[in-house]
Design goal:
Elements lengths: L16 E5 L16 H7 L11 E6 L2 H8 L6 E6 L1 E7 L5 E6 L2 E6 L5 E7 L6 H4 L4
Antiparallel strand pairs: 1-2, 2-3, 4-7, 5-6
Keywords: ATP-binding, Kinase, Nucleotide-binding, Transferase
GO molecular function, one term: ATP-dependent diacylglycerol kinase activity
Organism: Aegilops tauschii subsp. strangulata (Goatgrass)
Amino acid sequence: MDSSEWEHIPVPSSVRAIVALNLHNYASGRNPWGNLKPEYLEKKGFVEAQSDDGLLEIFGLKQGWHASLVMVELISAKHIAQAAAIRLEIKGGQWRDAYMQMDGEPWKQPLSTEYSTFVDIKRVPYPSMIISGADR
């Protein structure tokens, strides 16, 4: 997170919602970016999503109708990036608030026209007691 080597990745102007996952599926097992071909992964510099790969999958949704079609797997979401951590810079303007949700918990993030708001997200691996069989 304290890297000076952040890569700037512009979000397409059509994207209205950004989702960062530490799993290879979303919303009850959906694969929001579809079945990616090896050629696509290689071209983009991505690897196949795995729950233990240490990467966050970042994708975008355009509008409510787009999210609905992604959920029924008729189209795919916009696959934006894979990263160990992300930093979102949200600039205020005509909107006073950004509606956010983290791990199912929603909040309203106030925005300013005078400065940017930054949201840092990183995947923190926690050992699972179920998988490891550890005793409490």
